[in-house]
Every structure is written in C-alpha cells, then in structure tokens.
Amino acid sequence: MAQLVLAPLGLSHTSYGPCNGASPTEWGNRIEKGMVQNLGLTFEAWRPEDEPIQGACNDGNAWYFFGGVAGHAGLFGDAADLCALGRLYLNGGLWRDEAYLAADLVTEACQDRGTGRGLGFQFGDLYPEAGFGHTGFTGTYLYLNPQQNLVGALLTNRLNGPTPGKIDEFRRNQVKAALQVWGRSN
C-alpha cells in the first residue's frame, strides 16, 4: 500500500497505524461485540471496554484476525489526503496528468451497479445532487460530485459515546451547505 498507492499519490498523512494523536474511536469493541451477540455467536478475546481504541484499527475483523491491517479497514489519514484520493476518481484516474488508474476501472467504480453501490462507492440519498462516495464504520464520509467537480471529506466519530450516533442527516446537511457555498463561488 505504501509503495503502490500512498507514496506515488503523495498521501503523506495516511497509514495503517499505529497513529499517534488520533482521537479515540470507541471503548473496546462494544458495537461489534453487540453485533456478534445479536447473531448468537461467541467470541471471548475482545479488547477491554475500559480502554479507548486510539490510533489503532477499530474494525474487529481487521484487528483480531489480520493484526490490525486489512485492505478494507484500518487506514488513518487526514481530510486533505482523503480528498486527494477522491480527486483521483473525479479526474478519471489521472494523477498529475499521468494515468494512475485505468479509465475503464474508474468508470466502473463510479457508477451505480443497480444496488446503490459501485466498486467501493455508494449512491443514494446520503450523497445529494448526483453525488456518490463512501462511509467508514467510525463515521468518516467521502463525497464526490462529478457534475460540480467537488470532493469533500468529513471526519467525524459516531462511536465514541454511550451509543453509536446516527449521523447520516448531519452528513447530508454538511454536503448541502458545501454545495450552496460552492455554487455561489463558481
């Protein structure tokens, strides 16, 4: 990942961790523990609930079974790096005028496959005005809008509280406000 993606794209604030200075995501894996119990499954090796998960992967599959690093979870980064990654897709796979991703792959990834999902991207009401993007389990949100040539990142935390927060309305409202400002400035 570092050699093939992060370094070539200049994503110098993105890594799999551990990440110093990151905000805690939650205390133990309370959410996933509840999900496992609801499925009638058992697992006894949970992280302690009296210690915050901070600067380490929150995703249980990545943490417990892949040592904290997995392609689907565990990345830490800042909003600028996340927006740069989104910009790669809006630019048709071009990075600094060079083909980094195949254009046909970008086209496939950035279209709704009929289920509200593309290849790594989601579509629907969570992405206003013909946008699309991706959410993270802890609360992150990437928004891309090809018509407006706009990329936005929202780094929030919906887990670090007594119960997981429902933040979809907050996400939509932030994008709508950004689109209004963006529309006035162009």
What's the arrangement of secondary structure elements?
Elements: H1 2-9, E1 26-27, H2 30-38, E2 52-53, H3 60-66, H4 79-90, E3 94-95, E4 98-99, H5 103-109, E5 122-123, E6 132-135, E7 141-145, E8 150-154, H6 168-185
The CATH class label of the largest domain is: Alpha Beta
Average pLDDT, rounded to a whole number, is 91
- DSSP summary: helix tally: 6
Domain count: 2
Radius of gyration: 18 Å
Major sheet characteristics: 4 strands, antiparallel
Question: In terms of per-residue confidence, which ranges show pLDDT below 50 for 5 or more consecutive residues?
Answer: none
Strand order of the largest sheet: 5-6-7-8
Overview of this structure, please?
With 186 residues, the chain is an alpha+beta fold. It has two domains: 17-74, no CATH class; 79-185, Beta-lactamase. Helices cover 33% and strands 13% of the residues. The chain has six helices and eight strands. It has helices spanning 2-9, 30-38, 60-66, 79-90, 103-109, 168-185, and strands spanning 26-27, 52-53, 94-95, 98-99, 122-123, 132-135, 141-145, 150-154. The protein has a four-stranded antiparallel β-sheet, sandwiched between helices. Strands 1-2 form a two-stranded antiparallel ribbon. Strand 6 and strand 7 (141-145) form a beta hairpin. The chain is globular and about 50 Å long. The mean pLDDT is 91.
